[in-house]
Automatic annotation (TrEMBL):
Residues 1-81 form the GST N-terminal domain. GO terms for molecular function: transferase activity. Residues 83-203 form the GST C-terminal domain. It comes from the Bacteria. It comes from Rhodopseudomonas palustris. It holds the Pfam family GST_C_2. InterPro entries: Glutathione-S-Trfase_C-like, Glutathione-S-Trfase_C_sf, Glutathione_S-Trfase, Glutathione_S-Trfase_N, Thioredoxin-like_sf. This is Glutathione S-transferase family protein. SUPFAM superfamilies: GST C-terminal domain-like, Thioredoxin-like.
Length: 203
């Protein structure tokens, strides 16, 4: 299995973390999206959408979209709840992450970290929606240790990627104590070192 990804991308980290947590062997092939490496003819032949991550399996099979990838990789593992209802709740969070979380938290981070924008120049609507996403997580996590049931699942893997870096996008996590506690539990469940969102680079 070859994973084409950029370690600065939370979507790519989801795939790496899932493989590492499950002990799945893979070859990581770095793709620098800021240098246009996801738009080359060779990469577009792999994934016509021109996005990372993309995974190449044996033969000619390839798979894109981070949550589809981790859902496939984790089949039959403890990262997908055995209970059908909890598995459906996990999927609910996976869909929500791509529609109501990543477009705001991740985009604000990209604009600050890679485009050099100050907080004052961020789109106020994206900032508002980013805080709404964090507030939704805070509400849930005050009542549950994890997002789908009482143990780590792909829902936590998916939401952890950009939530732990939210401060790099101008979102002060001090206002979300339940989210901060969950970050620590999810990191521990994935065997990740603690991450300082202000001073550290994600790995």
């Amino acid at each position: 299995m070859k994973i084409y990804g950029d370690l600065n991308s939370g979507n790519c980290l989801k795939v790496k973390w899932t493989c590492d947590r499950l002990g799945l062997p893979y070859q990581w092939i770095a793709v620098d999206t800021m240098k246009g490496e996801s738009r080359t003819p060779a990469f577009l032949a792999l994934n016509p959408a021109g996005q990372v991550p993309a995974v190449a399996f044996d033969g000619s099979r390839t798979l894109a979209q981070s949550n589809a990838i981790i859902r496939y990789l984790a089949r039959g593992s403890d990262l997908i709840p055995a209970d059908p209802w909890l598995a459906a709740k996990m999927d609910e969070w996976l869909f929500w992450e791509q529609y109501s979380h990543e477009p705001y938290i991740a985009v604000c981070r990209f604009q600050m970290v890679y485009l050099g924008k100050p907080v004052s120049e961020l789109d106020p609507d994206k900032v508002r929606r980013g805080h709404a996403a964090l507030a939704r997580m805070e509400q849930h996590l005050t009542q549950s240790g994890f997002l789908a049931g009482d143990q780590l699942s792909l829902a936590d893997v998916a939401l952890l990627a950009y939530t732990r870096m939210a401060e790099q996008g101008g979102f002060a996590l001090q206002a979300y104590p339940a989210v901060r506690g969950w970050i620590g539990r999810a990191e521990a469940g994935l065997g990740l070192p603690g991450f300082d969102p202000v001073t550290a680079s994600p790995q």
